[in-house]
Hints:
Layout: H1 17-32, H2 36-40, E1 43-50, E2 58-59, H3 61-73, E3 75-82, E4 86-88, E5 91-102, E6 105-117, E7 123-132
Parallel strand pairs: 1-7
Antiparallel strand pairs: 1-2, 3-5, 4-5, 5-6, 6-7
Amino acid sequence: MSDAAPSTGGTTGGAAPADAHAWVAAYAAAWRGGDAAAAGALFAADAAYTFDPFGPGLRGREQVVAHWTQALAAQSELRLEVEEPVVDGDRAATAWRARFVRDGEQVELAAALLLRFDADGRCADLREFWLQSS
């Protein structure tokens, strides 16, 4: 995957619906490929990335890449299903389900993502809400 963000097709004010679909597909491809740099390229330089509603979250592409690098290093045998996003202007929502091995243990997670895109088609704000099976 290149460092180029998905094209906005000349729109302003955020990603067009087709771009949100391409963004979600690229997000899944980066995860499946274990490619933190490709994931980082999907985010705006000053993106907000929150997976803990009570914590500070991540700020900026560098923190996103560092988080992905750490998370991916601990995962193997990934099975990932990602739903097509629901899109409204520069916002989208999607869900994913992942199964993988971490530290020798099988892990199953399910999550919803709320996304907001900038005019370049990069994610400016990602809010992730996930649960782990017991």
